[in-house]
Amino acid sequence: MAKTWFITGASRGLGRVWTEAALRRGDRVAATARDARALRPLTEEFGAAVLPIELDVTDRPAAQAAVATAATRFGGLDVAVNNAGYGLFGAVEEATEAQARAQLETNLFGALWVTQAVLPVMRAGGGGRILQVSSIGGVAAFPTLGLYHASKWALEGLSEALAQEVAGFGVHVTIVEPGPFGTDWGGSSAAHTTPLPAYDAVRAARRSGAADRAPADPSTTAAAILAVVDAPEPPLRLFLGAFPFPVIERVYADRLATWQRWRAVAESAA
User: Across residues 46-64, what is the average pLDDT?
Assistant: First the structure.
């Protein structure tokens, strides 16, 4: 049975890949972007199956209106994908208040506003799927991405609680955690702090570590996303790509070892 999707950040990158994958198999998609002109090729190729909507996810009333428009046009919503977001590159000390707030407004609050808007529609329809696009950076942290990590770690906590709250309504939540893919995330979509010389060595080490890592092709993620939305019992979390696994295995091994090493001190506070 064809599904109806609501996808934010559908103009490029992973959002565009998933939008096209859904449409090509006969689903319908309300595709949103900050500039609706970027969605014209979709309407030219897929016609009435796609509903292009201009949306800045940080605008809560606009998010509510966009979801209402999509639900009215298609008679409901089966899948919501909170994909809109960007990366703020820079050391924590370098971030301005405006940059920090903007990062959270888009990556955290934007997903929250869309989630709150789609839930009444899904509850009324007897269920649905919400995909929260996080990152490997939602479970592991790297230098010069502190504010980005803050937004994604917050999204993960929100989404894990949400999954427990809405399970009884037949709504499933999956946190999608991609590794590095060849999107524009680190290009023109990114924001950058004004660098302080004190962190030049940290930046150089970070660039050196990433230089020999070729980003994966975003189109390879389509089948995995379709499998998740079709699964009777989708996972709470899903990595995309092979890169995250050894990183996360090391991170969690280090955490467990540290907790055990300091367990006696921790329990002394009981």
Answer: 98
